[in-house]
């Protein structure tokens, strides 16, 4: 299996405002929980990544990694790029890389508008000494 780098194509994530819910009654009152929409997104991403990993014959990146997200928004509405990071990285955890705590380099870029929106995720292993991206020089 190739461990030099991997590329995944994911659907546009739910809005940050729709990722969490806080019940105001019952046994879960006061707790912050993943919404049904967020759980569905994570399940969809898990299935997509499994297929893409199988087709590309790649394994989850072990150890320290770099991640690059290219966000292709579904429309021209004003959006903060940092609002997509958490749900996308959490959805990739354990599949593209072992743990998001192992991310030493994170790049987030805005791509062109491409309905219905998508996220391109590149993952590469960080070198022991210099942190260079596998097969590419740092910029």
Give a written overview of the molecule.
Helices cover 21% and strands 24% of the residues. It is α+β, with helices and mostly antiparallel strands. The model is unreliable at 128-139 (pLDDT under 50).
Give the gist of this structure.
This protein has two helices and six strands.
Reconstruct the topology from this structure:
Elements: E1 6-11, E2 20-21, E3 33-34, H1 36-56, E4 65-72, H2 85-92, E5 103-110, E6 118-125
Helix pairs in contact: 1-2
Features:
139 residues; alpha+beta; two-stranded antiparallel ribbon; 2 helices; globular
Q: What letter string, H or E per element, gives the SSE order?
A: EEEHEHEE
Average pLDDT rating: 87
* Secondary-structure class: alpha+beta
Q: What is the C-level CATH assignment?
A: Alpha Beta
Care to count the β-strands? Answer: 6
CATH fourth-tier homologous superfamily: Holliday junction resolvase RusA
- The appropriate CATH architecture is 2-Layer Sandwich
**Distance separating the two termini:** 27 Å
Taking the sheet with the most strands, its summary is: 4 strands, mixed
CATH topology: 60s Ribosomal Protein L30, Chain: A
Unreliable spans are 128-139
The helix content is 10-25%
Strand content: 15-25%
| Radius of gyration over C-alpha positions, nearest whole angstrom | 16 Å
């Amino acid at each position: 299996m190739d461990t030099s780098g991997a590329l995944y194509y994911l659907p546009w994530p739910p809005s940050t405002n729709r990722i969490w819910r806080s019940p105001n009654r019952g046994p879960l009152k006061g707790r912050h929980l993943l919404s049904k929409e967020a759980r569905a997104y994570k399940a969809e991403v898990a299935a997509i990544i499994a297929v893409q990993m199988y087709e590309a014959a790649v394994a989850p990146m072990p150890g320290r990694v770099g991640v690059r997200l290219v966000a292709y928004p579904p429309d021209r509405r004003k959006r903060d790029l940092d609002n997509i990071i958490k749900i996308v990285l959490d959805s990739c955890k354990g599949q593209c890389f072992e743990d998001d705590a192992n991310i030493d380099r994170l790049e987030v870029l805005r791509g062109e508008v491409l309905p219905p929106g998508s996220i391109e995720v590149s993952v590469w292993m960080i070198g022991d000494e210099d942190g260079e991206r596998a097969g590419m020089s740092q910029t």
